[in-house]
From TrEMBL:
Gene3D superfamilies: 1.20.120.1630. It comes from Streptomyces triticagri. Its main location: membrane. InterPro entries: Phopholipid_MeTrfase. It is a multi-pass membrane protein. GO terms for biological process: methylation. One of its GO terms (cellular component) is endomembrane system. Keywords: Membrane, Methyltransferase, Transferase, Transmembrane, Transmembrane helix. One of its GO terms (molecular function) is methyltransferase activity. The chain crosses the membrane at residues 20-38, 111-133. This is Isoprenylcysteine carboxylmethyltransferase family protein.
Length: 180
């Protein structure tokens, strides 16, 4: 197998595809939807800080997930699992940090713009992400990574973070295994 100089040095290339999806979902669509259906008139002293917090946490989670899955390895968009099982960064907290982050980002935008239409779009994005994860991604990861994915799935929640102690209790115990 031929190895390019870029692969030998470990240099990463910026691929537009993985960046286009979050840009459209969290940028273009909310810009179009924002003015269409106003949300409830909430106090800006609450709406703006909460919206900013949700948007920033969501943007970080989405960016971290895109970087780890699509930019650090040669993973095509959705047609096959990544080269290696990603369990670091935001994937230590949730199995689906990209979808959860995108949903938080959209909910933050809905508060910042006071736009119920963006909250509705967040519900659509979460629903599509959930169905895709359950029917396509998880079976593919299980086939590709087997027991490693089963252990990861048992230890890390899919959508809602758990306190650290709860995550430790869910993780498989290694104490009773025979030494290797």
């Amino acid at each position: 197998m031929r190895v390019s100089p870029r692969q030998r040095t470990g240099a990463r290339t910026l691929r537009a595809g993985p960046l286009a999806v979050p840009f459209v979902v969290a940028g273009v669509v909310p810009t179009v939807l924002g003015p269409t259906l106003a949300g409830p008139a909430l106090d800006p002293a609450v709406r703006i800080p909460v919206g900013l917090l949700l948007a920033l946490v969501g943007a970080w989670s989405t960016a971290d997930a895109v970087d780890r899955v699509y930019l650090r390895q040669n993973t095509p968009l959705g047609d096959r699992p990544p080269d290696h099982l990603v369990t670091g960064g935001s994937y230590r907290i949730l199995r689906n940090p990209m979808a959860a982050g995108m949903t938080l980002l959209l909910l933050g935008e809905s508060l910042l713009w006071s736009a119920a239409s963006i909250a509705g779009w967040a519900a659509v994005v979460l629903t599509v992400s959930y169905v895709t994860a359950r029917r396509i991604e998880e079976p593919g990861l299980l086939r590709t990574f087997g027991a490693a994915y089963t252990d990861y799935r048992r230890a890390v929640p899919a959508w809602f973070p758990l306190p650290r102690r709860t995550r430790e209790l869910r993780a498989p115990s290694r104490r009773n295994e025979a030494p290797r």
